[in-house]
C-alpha cells in the first residue's frame, strides 16, 4: 500500500458547508489527503460526494469552512485556480476533444508554442515537441495501449479515452489528481488498466482522490476510504480495518462505523 496518514496533508478541508437554497449539499465536512496515498470517497447518491469534489477543485465555492493546500489556507474561485495550484480533475464526462489527436488532447488549453518569434508573434504550435512529450508521458505512466499519439481520440475505446484524460491530469497535476468514477463505463480489462494507472500515479508520489461506486475497486486500490453520508463525513476507514459490507453499512446509516 502507498502513503500513511501522517505528516501534513497535501489537501485538507475543514468544516466545509455548501447549501443550495434549502438543500444542504455539505454540512461541515472534513477531509484529509496525505502525500503518496489513494483516498477513495464513497457514499450514496445525494451524500454530497460531487459537491465536496467541486469545492475542492474550484468548480463550487463553499459557503463556509476552509481548504488548505500543504497546510496553507487557499481559496479557489474557479477550476482554473485549482489547476494553477496543481490540482487536476478527471470528471465522469471526459473533457476530451474527439476530433483532435492524443497529443493535442494531452496539451488541450496548454498548447506549447514554437520557440522564438514564430511562436511568440505568430503563435505557431510546437506539434512535434508536444507529440514527443506526449509519448514520454504515456511511457512513464506505463500506458502501452496508446503507441501512436497522432491517432484522433474519436478512434479510441472508452478505456483508452480515460487513459488520455488521466495522462493529461498526471502530466500537469503536480500536487493532486482527482478521478470521478474513472471505471464506471469500462469493461473488466480496461478498468484494470485504469487502476494500474492510479497505482503508477501514487508510486510517483502524486496523491489521488478517487470517487467510485465500485466497492471491489475501492477496496483494491484505496489506502483510506472517506465515507460520505447526508452531507457529512460519516467515517474514515481502511480496507484493513473494515469489510465491504461494513463500509456499505456506514454509508447507508445501518452502522455508525
From TrEMBL:
Domain of life of the source: Bacteria
Keyword Zinc among UniProt keywords: no
UniProt GO molecular function: ATP binding
SUPFAM superfamilies membership: P-loop containing nucleoside triphosphate hydrolases
CDD domains: ABC_Carb_Monos_I
Pfam families: ABC_tran
Keyword set, alphabetical order: ATP-binding, Nucleotide-binding
InterPro entries with a match to the protein in the record: AAA+_ATPase, ABC_carbohydrate_import_ATPase, ABC_transporter-like_ATP-bd, ABC_transporter-like_CS, P-loop_NTPase
Protein name, per record: ATP-binding cassette domain-containing protein
Domain ABC transporter, first and last residues per copy: 11-255
Gene3D superfamilies per UniProt: P-loop containing nucleotide triphosphate hydrolases
Calcium keyword on record: no
